[in-house]
Amino acid sequence: QVQLVESGGALVQAGGSLRLPCLVSGGRFGNYVMGWFRQAPGKEREFVAAIKWSGDNKYYADSVKGRFTISRDNAKNTVYLQMNSLKPEDTAVYYCAAGSGIPTHAMARMGEYDYWGQGTQVTVSS
User: Fold this and answer.
1) Which DSSP symbol is given to 118?
2) How far is CA 106 from the centre of its chain?
3) 26: which of 2, 5, 11, 45 fits an S-S bond (Cβ 3.0–4.6 Å)?
4) Residue 54 has pLDDT above 90, yes or no
5) In the 3-class helix/strand/coil scheme, how is 37-64 assigned residue by residue?
């Protein structure tokens, strides 16, 4: 059984930084496309970033480009989301997700991912 566990969420002031790790167990991590999504109160879950198994191809939502960086360490079965220059509108529960065989054009689609973590809360104060 594949399990994803996010951590690193916290309360941070605007302009600050956080790094969210997501540890994957029970599956073949190196085969997965890994994604980060977030859900703010009263809003739908939205795509944040995704990375191919090789780590070469990375994709970002326009709202986080230039501020967030996704990376992965296949030896540690872990994907990271480095978040810099945080804004109050980044406040949300952040989820990592894993899926296999996701085509490049579909990496932002929630329905393409097979496994999800429980989420970690990020709160950015103004």
Assistant:
1) -
2) 15
3) 2
4) no
5) EEECCCCCCEEEEEECCCCCCEEECCCC
